[in-house]
Design goal:
The complex is a heterodimer of chains A (310) and B (179).
Chain A: H1 16-32, E1 47-52, H2 58-69, E2 73-78, H3 90-98, E3 104-109, H4 114-121, E4 125-131, H5 137-151, E5 158-162, H6 169-180, E6 184-188, E7 204-206, E8 218-221, H7 237-244, H8 248-252, E9 259-261, H9 274-277, H10 284-302
Parallel strand pairs in A: 1-2, 1-3, 3-4, 5-6, 5-8, 6-7, 8-9
Chain B: E1 2-3, H1 8-25, E2 32-37, H2 40-56, E3 62-65, E4 96-104, H3 108-120, E5 125-133, E6 145-149, E7 156-162, E8 170-176
Parallel strand pairs in B: 2-3, 2-4, 4-5, 5-6
Antiparallel strand pairs in B: 1-8, 7-8
Classes of the chains: A alpha/beta (310), B alpha/beta (179).
Chain lengths: 310, 179
């Protein structure tokens, strides 16, 4: 098998069969985390640097554990503790990190395009851990892996993504990936939170949640991103929750085997109630568990073999 | 070039002999488990376990080991190998493990397999059983149970496959290495 990329920047770049390969391999890597000794020697001697210019709990921990379980050395740098606060540009920071010869840089950045730029300019592997409103490819892959584990296939699956689509890189990556894998996607959001051009994405769009629920196999709730919603997109948390929150009454209208997903962190009581988040349908912690397996797979594939970079 | 130096009947004889030797050598079958190295080793292990279960009337646990993540040549390869699942549905702690591979050559696969097994637990001991020993060792590793010694030049490889005509046999194929 050949893996043609040194980097992972966007689901948009991947072909259907490449996504399928990742999802197949992830179940092999998942088994490692179930052992008493959760470590294989595969990436011994490789160095993975995590550059996080935005807060993160799950993604950063997940990448770090994934790298360590493959025996890579990891070190993490966050914006608050770095020279970024002294005015150093991200590319200067990247060149300085590169001078210390890492094999892979995992980067999260508040604006789109920086991971791609780094991938083009640096000889090491670059994995996008979320850039602005662009993409969060490993999140979409772990979401698809979780759905595939549950339903056996993504083909024909009806997936509703609910919430702040406009500011969501998770939604974009999932839309690209799910469509390539044959799932049918419906985006649910108030019109103020739909991005311009959404009609060209090849998905259904609904301004109302209730009519979508009975047909959905997966309901993926997005976080109300308070840090990004500095303008007025809706009247308030209570109104949002009333129209778009997943609560007990709505959960009861879901299909028998339908599931609830959320990329985290949750705002309990806003987009999702405790009834829904903690229900038997909730796959939220499965998503977190699967995140480690997906990131192990990507580190393995991205760091494999030699790839020439001009 | 593609020839079949070992015919179906001979393979069946070799498998029967291996099962017979194991029956003579091992007294306590309660703690014995078989682990095959994917994919040829699993095939051989399955055949031998079937024979032994027939003869002892006991259920003998069989697991499959994928050694891709334990290879020592990963940093030298242009592309990493596909990773398949290690599937060992039992504990190896305090067990007598019969590690099975189809062909013993350099010994590197066996080294990787032993490293993998000790990551899963602490077996009482590990025996190595192979269908063919073709020599050419690069590591100080020898098999405890060998089906047949075969002399082959380095340009050739032996592959085994599940036979298509009947479930009961294994096909052995010798071909040139693709370099």
């Amino acid at each position: 098998m050949t893996w043609p990329y040194k980097d992972l920047i966007a689901i948009h770049d991947l072909k259907r069969e490449e996504i399928a390969t990742i999802l197949d391999m992830a179940s092999s890597f998942k088994e490692i985390s179930k052992r008493d000794i959760k470590k294989v020697p595969t990436l011994r001697g490789k160095t993975v640097v995590l550059l996080f210019y935005e807060p993160s709990t799950r993604t950063r921990l997940s990448f770090e554990l994934a790298a360590k379980r493959l025996s890579a050395d990891t070190t993490a740098l966050s914006a608050s503790g770095s020279s970024f606060t002294k005015g150093e540009t991200i590319m200067d920071a990247a060149y300085n990190v590169m001078a210390m010869a890492p094999d892979c840089i995992v980067v999260r950045y508040p604006y789109a395009g920086i991971p791609r730029k780094m991938a083009q300019l640096l000889p090491c592997s670059v994995i996008n851990a979320g850039d602005g409103y662009h993409e969060h490819p490993t999140q979409a892959l772990l979401d698809m892996f979780t759905m595939k584990e549950r339903f056996g296939t993504l083909d024909g699956l009806r997936v509703a993504i609910v919430g702040d689509i406009m500011h969501s890189r998770v939604a974009r990556s999932n839309v690209y990936g799910l469509r390539k894998m044959g799932a049918r996607v419906v985006l649910v959001a108030p019109k103020t939170l739909l991005p311009p051009g959404v009609d060209t994405w090849g998905v259904d769009v609904s301004a109302e949640l209730d009519p979508v629920i009975p047909d959905a196999d997966v309901i993926m709730m997005l976080r109300v991103q308070k840090e990004r919603l500095n303008r007025q997109f809706f009247s308030g948390d209570r109104e949002y929750s009333f129209f778009y929150g997943l609560n007990r009454a709505r959960v009861e209208k879901m299909k028998t085997d339908a599931v609830i997903m959320h990329p985290g962190p949750m705002n309990r009581g806003v987009e999702i109630t405790c009834d829904a988040a903690d229900s038997a349908r909730s796959m939220i912690l499965d998503q977190v568990e699967n995140g480690v397996a997906i990131r192990m797979t990507l580190l393995y594939l991205s760091l494999g073999g030699s790839v020439n970079v001009d | 070039m593609n020839d079949q130096p070992v015919n179906t009947k001979e393979v069946n004889d070799i498998l029967n002999n291996l099962a017979g030797t194991l029956l003579d050598s091992i007294q306590k079958w309660e703690d014995v488990v078989f682990i095959g190295i994917r994919s040829g080793g699993v095939l051989v292990a399955k055949k031998v376990v079937d024979l032994l279960e027939e003869k002892t009337g006991k259920d003998i646990p069989l697991g499959a080991l994928d050694i891709a993540l334990y290879r020592d040549d990963l940093s030298k390869m242009r592309f990493y190998p596909e990773v398949r699942k290690t599937d060992i549905p039992f504990s190896v702690d305090d067990k007598t493990v019969i590690l099975v591979d189809d062909v013993l050559h350099t010994g590197r696969s066996v080294r990787a397999a032993i490293d993998h097994i000790v990551d899963l637990g602490r077996p009482m001991r590990i025996y190595l059983m192979v269908l063919f020993d073709r020599g050419g060792r690069e590591f100080p590793i020898q098999a405890d149970f060998v089906g047949k010694q075969i002399d082959l030049s380095d340009e050739k490889i032996i592959k085994i496959e599940a036979s298509e005509d009947t479930e009961a046999t294994i096909d052995v194929i010798i071909c040139e290495v693709n370099r």
